[in-house]
Design a protein that fits this description.
- It is a single chain.
- The chain has 345 residues and is an alpha/beta fold.
- The protein has 14 helices and 13 strands.
- It folds into two domains: 207 residues, inorganic pyrophosphatase (n-terminal core), CATH 3.90.1640.10; 128 residues, Roll (Diaminopimelate Epimerase, Chain A, domain 1), CATH 3.10.310.30.
- Helices cover 40% and strands 19% of the residues.
- Helix 6 packs across helix 8.
- Bound molecules: guanosine-5'-monophosphate (5GP) and manganese (II) ion.
- The site of guanosine-5'-monophosphate has 11 residues, from strand 12 and strand 13.
Length: 345
Protein backbone atom coordinates (compact mmCIF):
# COMPACT_ATOMS: atom_id res chain seq x y z
CA UNK A 1 0.00 0.00 0.00
CA UNK A 2 1.47 3.43 -0.94
CA UNK A 3 2.28 5.86 1.85
CA UNK A 4 0.25 8.64 0.23
CA UNK A 5 -2.97 8.49 -1.77
CA UNK A 6 -4.66 11.53 -3.30
CA UNK A 7 -7.69 10.46 -5.28
CA UNK A 8 -10.41 12.46 -7.01
CA UNK A 9 -9.52 15.83 -5.54
CA UNK A 10 -9.77 17.73 -8.83
CA UNK A 11 -13.31 16.37 -9.25
CA UNK A 12 -14.00 17.21 -5.60
CA UNK A 13 -12.77 20.77 -6.15
CA UNK A 14 -15.30 21.17 -8.99
CA UNK A 15 -18.06 19.57 -6.84
CA UNK A 16 -17.33 22.09 -4.09
CA UNK A 17 -17.62 25.04 -6.45
CA UNK A 18 -21.38 24.96 -5.70
CA UNK A 19 -22.75 25.61 -2.23
CA UNK A 20 -23.23 22.19 -0.58
CA UNK A 21 -24.65 20.66 2.57
CA UNK A 22 -21.69 18.92 4.13
CA UNK A 23 -21.33 16.63 7.13
CA UNK A 24 -17.90 16.14 8.69
CA UNK A 25 -17.52 12.99 10.79
CA UNK A 26 -14.89 12.04 13.39
CA UNK A 27 -14.30 8.66 15.03
CA UNK A 28 -15.85 7.17 18.18
CA UNK A 29 -14.30 8.42 21.40
CA UNK A 30 -12.99 11.48 19.57
CA UNK A 31 -9.52 12.62 20.61
CA UNK A 32 -7.84 16.00 20.13
CA UNK A 33 -7.02 15.29 16.50
CA UNK A 34 -10.53 14.08 15.65
CA UNK A 35 -12.14 17.11 17.32
CA UNK A 36 -9.55 19.57 16.01
CA UNK A 37 -9.58 18.38 12.41
CA UNK A 38 -13.38 18.05 12.10
CA UNK A 39 -14.21 21.40 13.66
CA UNK A 40 -11.46 23.19 11.73
CA UNK A 41 -12.55 21.68 8.42
CA UNK A 42 -16.21 22.51 8.98
CA UNK A 43 -15.33 26.10 9.92
CA UNK A 44 -13.21 26.39 6.77
CA UNK A 45 -15.98 24.91 4.58
CA UNK A 46 -18.47 27.32 6.15
CA UNK A 47 -16.18 30.22 5.26
CA UNK A 48 -16.23 28.91 1.68
CA UNK A 49 -20.02 29.33 1.70
CA UNK A 50 -21.08 25.75 2.42
CA UNK A 51 -23.42 24.58 5.12
CA UNK A 52 -21.16 22.34 7.21
CA UNK A 53 -21.90 20.35 10.36
CA UNK A 54 -19.69 18.14 12.50
CA UNK A 55 -21.04 14.85 13.86
CA UNK A 56 -19.08 12.60 16.19
CA UNK A 57 -20.42 9.24 17.45
CA UNK A 58 -20.17 10.09 21.14
CA UNK A 59 -18.86 12.63 23.63
CA UNK A 60 -15.25 13.84 23.69
CA UNK A 61 -13.30 14.00 26.98
CA UNK A 62 -13.77 17.06 29.15
CA UNK A 63 -10.26 18.35 28.51
CA UNK A 64 -11.33 19.09 24.92
CA UNK A 65 -14.73 20.65 25.47
CA UNK A 66 -13.29 24.20 25.60
CA UNK A 67 -12.40 24.02 21.92
CA UNK A 68 -14.01 26.79 19.85
CA UNK A 69 -17.03 25.30 18.11
CA UNK A 70 -17.20 22.14 20.22
CA UNK A 71 -20.67 23.21 21.43
CA UNK A 72 -21.94 23.08 17.83
CA UNK A 73 -20.83 19.47 17.31
CA UNK A 74 -23.64 16.88 17.13
CA UNK A 75 -23.28 13.61 19.02
CA UNK A 76 -24.78 10.72 17.12
CA UNK A 77 -25.66 8.78 20.28
CA UNK A 78 -27.71 11.37 22.17
CA UNK A 79 -28.55 13.78 19.33
CA UNK A 80 -29.59 11.02 17.01
CA UNK A 81 -32.55 12.69 15.31
CA UNK A 82 -30.61 15.84 14.45
CA UNK A 83 -27.61 13.78 13.34
CA UNK A 84 -29.70 11.56 11.07
CA UNK A 85 -31.38 14.63 9.60
CA UNK A 86 -28.04 16.28 8.84
CA UNK A 87 -26.71 13.09 7.25
CA UNK A 88 -29.88 12.60 5.15
CA UNK A 89 -29.78 16.20 3.94
CA UNK A 90 -26.08 16.19 3.09
CA UNK A 91 -24.60 16.19 -0.41
CA UNK A 92 -21.30 14.71 0.72
CA UNK A 93 -19.68 13.41 3.91
CA UNK A 94 -16.09 13.96 5.01
CA UNK A 95 -14.61 11.18 7.15
CA UNK A 96 -11.75 12.50 9.26
CA UNK A 97 -9.10 10.82 11.38
CA UNK A 98 -10.25 7.25 10.78
CA UNK A 99 -9.62 4.67 8.09
CA UNK A 100 -12.59 2.30 8.28
CA UNK A 101 -16.32 2.83 8.84
CA UNK A 102 -16.45 0.50 11.85
CA UNK A 103 -14.36 3.08 13.77
CA UNK A 104 -17.55 5.16 14.32
CA UNK A 105 -19.22 2.33 16.26
CA UNK A 106 -21.97 0.02 15.04
CA UNK A 107 -24.99 2.41 15.26
CA UNK A 108 -23.43 5.19 13.24
CA UNK A 109 -21.75 2.66 10.94
CA UNK A 110 -25.20 1.26 10.01
CA UNK A 111 -26.38 4.74 9.08
CA UNK A 112 -23.26 5.58 7.08
CA UNK A 113 -23.39 2.25 5.20
CA UNK A 114 -26.84 3.20 3.87
CA UNK A 115 -25.60 6.60 2.69
CA UNK A 116 -25.97 6.96 -1.08
CA UNK A 117 -23.88 10.09 -1.78
CA UNK A 118 -20.09 10.11 -1.75
CA UNK A 119 -17.50 10.06 1.00
CA UNK A 120 -14.24 11.98 1.25
CA UNK A 121 -11.64 10.49 3.58
CA UNK A 122 -8.86 12.61 5.03
CA UNK A 123 -6.80 10.43 7.35
CA UNK A 124 -3.34 9.33 8.42
CA UNK A 125 -4.00 5.76 9.62
CA UNK A 126 -2.64 2.74 7.83
CA UNK A 127 -4.64 0.50 5.46
CA UNK A 128 -7.50 2.91 4.64
CA UNK A 129 -10.78 1.56 3.27
CA UNK A 130 -11.44 2.73 -0.27
CA UNK A 131 -13.92 5.59 -0.76
CA UNK A 132 -14.51 7.86 -3.76
CA UNK A 133 -12.37 10.80 -2.68
CA UNK A 134 -9.26 10.10 -0.64
CA UNK A 135 -6.43 12.00 0.92
CA UNK A 136 -4.48 9.47 2.94
CA UNK A 137 -0.92 9.90 4.16
CA UNK A 138 0.41 7.62 6.87
CA UNK A 139 3.56 9.70 7.25
CA UNK A 140 1.75 12.84 8.41
CA UNK A 141 1.57 13.17 12.19
CA UNK A 142 -2.08 14.15 12.41
CA UNK A 143 -5.26 14.61 10.43
CA UNK A 144 -5.21 18.23 11.60
CA UNK A 145 -1.94 18.78 9.72
CA UNK A 146 -3.60 17.17 6.67
CA UNK A 147 -6.54 19.58 6.96
CA UNK A 148 -4.04 22.46 7.01
CA UNK A 149 -2.39 21.02 3.89
CA UNK A 150 -5.82 20.55 2.24
CA UNK A 151 -6.57 24.22 2.87
CA UNK A 152 -3.11 25.08 1.54
CA UNK A 153 -3.74 22.98 -1.58
CA UNK A 154 -6.83 25.14 -2.22
CA UNK A 155 -4.72 28.32 -1.81
CA UNK A 156 -6.93 29.32 1.11
CA UNK A 157 -4.47 29.67 3.99
CA UNK A 158 -5.64 33.24 4.52
CA UNK A 159 -9.07 31.88 5.52
CA UNK A 160 -7.56 30.30 8.66
CA UNK A 161 -8.74 32.48 11.53
CA UNK A 162 -7.89 32.20 15.24
CA UNK A 163 -10.58 29.55 15.91
CA UNK A 164 -9.49 27.33 13.03
CA UNK A 165 -5.84 27.81 14.03
CA UNK A 166 -6.66 26.85 17.63
CA UNK A 167 -8.43 23.64 16.55
CA UNK A 168 -5.62 22.61 14.19
CA UNK A 169 -2.95 23.42 16.78
CA UNK A 170 -4.75 21.27 19.34
CA UNK A 171 -5.04 18.31 16.96
CA UNK A 172 -1.38 18.47 15.95
CA UNK A 173 -0.23 18.94 19.54
CA UNK A 174 -2.22 16.00 20.96
CA UNK A 175 -1.35 13.55 18.15
CA UNK A 176 2.38 14.31 18.35
CA UNK A 177 2.67 14.11 22.15
CA UNK A 178 3.37 17.87 22.07
CA UNK A 179 5.65 17.74 19.03
CA UNK A 180 7.94 14.97 20.23
CA UNK A 181 6.98 11.83 18.29
CA UNK A 182 8.93 10.70 15.24
CA UNK A 183 6.07 11.85 13.00
CA UNK A 184 6.81 15.49 13.95
CA UNK A 185 8.71 17.07 11.05
CA UNK A 186 10.11 20.50 10.24
CA UNK A 187 6.96 20.98 8.14
CA UNK A 188 4.87 20.31 11.27
CA UNK A 189 6.80 23.02 13.13
CA UNK A 190 6.42 25.47 10.22
CA UNK A 191 2.67 24.85 10.21
CA UNK A 192 2.54 25.27 13.99
CA UNK A 193 4.43 28.57 13.67
CA UNK A 194 1.92 29.75 11.08
CA UNK A 195 -1.00 28.69 13.31
CA UNK A 196 0.46 30.77 16.16
CA UNK A 197 0.76 33.71 13.76
CA UNK A 198 -2.88 33.18 12.83
CA UNK A 199 -4.02 33.39 16.45
CA UNK A 200 -3.54 30.00 18.16
CA UNK A 201 -2.54 30.83 21.75
CA UNK A 202 -0.10 28.01 22.42
CA UNK A 203 0.25 28.49 26.19
CA UNK A 204 -3.52 28.57 26.71
CA UNK A 205 -4.05 25.49 24.56
CA UNK A 206 -1.41 23.52 26.48
CA UNK A 207 -2.97 24.62 29.78
CA UNK A 208 -6.49 23.72 28.70
CA UNK A 209 -5.51 20.24 27.56
CA UNK A 210 -2.79 19.19 29.98
CA UNK A 211 -3.36 21.20 33.14
CA UNK A 212 -7.00 20.42 33.71
CA UNK A 213 -6.52 17.37 35.94
CA UNK A 214 -8.95 16.51 38.70
CA UNK A 215 -7.54 15.21 41.98
CA UNK A 216 -9.11 11.81 41.25
CA UNK A 217 -7.45 11.66 37.86
CA UNK A 218 -4.04 12.01 39.48
CA UNK A 219 -4.94 9.34 42.05
CA UNK A 220 -6.00 7.04 39.19
CA UNK A 221 -2.64 7.71 37.56
CA UNK A 222 -0.99 6.79 40.86
CA UNK A 223 -2.91 3.51 40.87
CA UNK A 224 -1.94 2.83 37.27
CA UNK A 225 1.73 3.47 38.02
CA UNK A 226 1.65 1.15 40.99
CA UNK A 227 0.25 -1.56 38.67
CA UNK A 228 3.11 -1.05 36.19
CA UNK A 229 5.03 -4.22 35.30
CA UNK A 230 8.29 -4.48 33.41
CA UNK A 231 9.61 -7.31 31.26
CA UNK A 232 13.16 -5.98 30.86
CA UNK A 233 14.44 -8.89 28.79
CA UNK A 234 11.87 -7.95 26.10
CA UNK A 235 12.15 -4.16 26.57
CA UNK A 236 8.44 -4.16 27.38
CA UNK A 237 6.32 -2.57 30.11
CA UNK A 238 2.60 -2.70 30.70
CA UNK A 239 -0.09 -1.27 32.96
CA UNK A 240 -3.48 -2.65 33.97
CA UNK A 241 -6.54 -0.84 35.26
CA UNK A 242 -9.61 -2.75 36.41
CA UNK A 243 -13.19 -1.47 36.56
CA UNK A 244 -13.02 -1.44 40.36
CA UNK A 245 -9.93 0.75 40.30
CA UNK A 246 -11.61 3.10 37.81
CA UNK A 247 -14.69 3.32 40.05
CA UNK A 248 -12.60 3.94 43.14
CA UNK A 249 -11.21 7.11 41.58
CA UNK A 250 -14.46 8.24 39.95
CA UNK A 251 -13.23 7.55 36.42
CA UNK A 252 -14.32 10.12 33.82
CA UNK A 253 -13.94 9.79 30.08
CA UNK A 254 -10.42 10.74 29.05
CA UNK A 255 -8.88 10.09 32.47
CA UNK A 256 -6.68 7.27 31.16
CA UNK A 257 -5.50 9.19 28.10
CA UNK A 258 -1.71 9.31 27.94
CA UNK A 259 -1.05 6.99 30.90
CA UNK A 260 0.51 4.38 28.60
CA UNK A 261 3.28 6.89 27.82
CA UNK A 262 4.58 6.59 31.39
CA UNK A 263 5.34 2.94 30.69
CA UNK A 264 7.15 3.94 27.50
CA UNK A 265 9.12 6.61 29.36
CA UNK A 266 11.11 3.98 31.26
CA UNK A 267 14.74 3.86 30.19
CA UNK A 268 15.34 0.91 27.92
CA UNK A 269 11.62 0.23 27.30
CA UNK A 270 10.53 0.39 23.66
CA UNK A 271 7.16 -1.36 23.79
CA UNK A 272 4.37 -0.37 26.17
CA UNK A 273 0.76 -1.36 26.67
CA UNK A 274 -2.12 -0.41 28.91
CA UNK A 275 -5.04 -2.77 29.51
CA UNK A 276 -8.20 -1.07 30.68
CA UNK A 277 -11.31 -2.96 31.70
CA UNK A 278 -14.40 -1.55 30.00
CA UNK A 279 -17.47 -2.83 31.81
CA UNK A 280 -19.90 -1.20 29.41
CA UNK A 281 -18.51 -2.86 26.27
CA UNK A 282 -17.44 -5.98 28.20
CA UNK A 283 -13.94 -5.87 26.73
CA UNK A 284 -10.42 -5.01 27.75
CA UNK A 285 -9.51 -1.91 25.74
CA UNK A 286 -5.81 -1.80 24.93
CA UNK A 287 -3.44 0.97 23.88
CA UNK A 288 -0.05 0.04 22.47
CA UNK A 289 2.93 2.37 22.02
CA UNK A 290 6.42 1.72 20.70
CA UNK A 291 9.68 3.43 19.84
CA UNK A 292 11.59 2.65 16.67
CA UNK A 293 10.70 0.01 14.09
CA UNK A 294 8.54 -2.36 16.13
CA UNK A 295 5.09 -1.87 14.57
CA UNK A 296 2.31 -1.89 17.13
CA UNK A 297 -0.14 -1.46 14.25
CA UNK A 298 0.86 -4.92 12.97
CA UNK A 299 1.02 -6.40 16.47
CA UNK A 300 -2.47 -5.18 17.31
CA UNK A 301 -3.94 -6.22 13.95
CA UNK A 302 -2.49 -9.69 14.28
CA UNK A 303 -3.40 -10.38 17.91
CA UNK A 304 -5.86 -7.87 19.36
CA UNK A 305 -8.37 -6.94 16.61
CA UNK A 306 -7.06 -3.41 16.34
CA UNK A 307 -4.68 -1.17 14.47
CA UNK A 308 -3.56 2.42 14.15
CA UNK A 309 -0.03 3.61 13.43
CA UNK A 310 3.40 1.98 13.62
CA UNK A 311 4.17 3.57 17.00
CA UNK A 312 0.66 4.07 18.44
CA UNK A 313 -2.23 1.67 18.07
CA UNK A 314 -5.27 0.38 19.89
CA UNK A 315 -6.97 -2.96 20.19
CA UNK A 316 -9.26 -5.05 22.36
CA UNK A 317 -9.60 -8.39 24.03
CA UNK A 318 -12.70 -10.37 24.93
CA UNK A 319 -10.80 -12.38 27.55
CA UNK A 320 -10.76 -11.37 31.21
CA UNK A 321 -7.94 -9.15 32.47
CA UNK A 322 -5.67 -11.90 33.75
CA UNK A 323 -6.07 -14.03 30.59
CA UNK A 324 -5.46 -10.97 28.40
CA UNK A 325 -2.26 -10.18 30.26
CA UNK A 326 -1.21 -13.82 30.03
CA UNK A 327 -1.85 -13.84 26.27
CA UNK A 328 0.20 -10.65 25.96
CA UNK A 329 3.17 -11.80 28.02
CA UNK A 330 3.29 -15.13 26.16
CA UNK A 331 3.18 -13.33 22.81
CA UNK A 332 5.97 -10.97 23.81
CA UNK A 333 8.43 -13.80 24.21
CA UNK A 334 7.83 -14.69 20.54
CA UNK A 335 8.77 -11.14 19.52
CA UNK A 336 11.97 -11.06 21.58
CA UNK A 337 14.18 -10.82 18.52
CA UNK A 338 12.09 -8.12 16.76
CA UNK A 339 12.05 -6.04 19.93
CA UNK A 340 15.78 -6.42 20.43
CA UNK A 341 16.77 -5.18 16.97
CA UNK A 342 14.08 -2.52 16.52
CA UNK A 343 15.63 0.37 18.38
CA UNK A 344 19.13 1.64 18.95
CA UNK A 345 19.52 4.10 21.75
P1 LIG B 1 -5.28 5.07 21.52
O1 LIG B 1 -4.38 4.01 22.07
O2 LIG B 1 -4.81 6.44 21.86
O3 LIG B 1 -6.73 4.81 21.79
O4 LIG B 1 -5.15 4.94 19.94
C1 LIG B 1 -3.91 4.99 19.29
C2 LIG B 1 -4.15 4.97 17.80
O5 LIG B 1 -4.71 3.73 17.40
C3 LIG B 1 -5.13 6.04 17.35
O6 LIG B 1 -4.66 6.57 16.14
C4 LIG B 1 -6.42 5.31 17.17
O7 LIG B 1 -7.19 5.89 16.17
C5 LIG B 1 -5.99 3.90 16.81
N1 LIG B 1 -6.88 2.91 17.41
C6 LIG B 1 -7.26 2.84 18.71
N2 LIG B 1 -8.07 1.78 18.92
C7 LIG B 1 -8.21 1.16 17.73
C8 LIG B 1 -8.94 0.00 17.30
O8 LIG B 1 -9.61 -0.68 18.07
N3 LIG B 1 -8.84 -0.32 15.98
C9 LIG B 1 -8.08 0.41 15.11
N4 LIG B 1 -8.04 0.02 13.82
N5 LIG B 1 -7.40 1.50 15.48
C10 LIG B 1 -7.44 1.88 16.76
MN1 LIG C 1 -5.11 11.34 14.42
Amino acid sequence: MPLMILKGFEELRVFLEKKRNIVVVGHRNPDGDAMGSTIALSKYLSKKGHNATVIVPNECPQFLDWMPGSDEVYHFDWQNTQSQREINNSDIIFLLDFNALHRVGSDMQNTLEKYTNDFVMIDHHQQPEDVKYMYSDVEICSTSQMVYQFIELNNDLDLINADIATCLYTGIMTDTGSFRFRSTTSKTHKIIADLIDKGAENDKIHNNVYDANSYNRLLLLGQALSNLKIIPENKTAFITLTSDEKKQFDFQKGDTEGIVNYALSLKGIIFAAIFIEDEEQKIIKISFRSKGDFSVNKFSRNHFEGGGHDNAAGGKSDLCMSDTVLKFTKLITKYKNDLEISYED
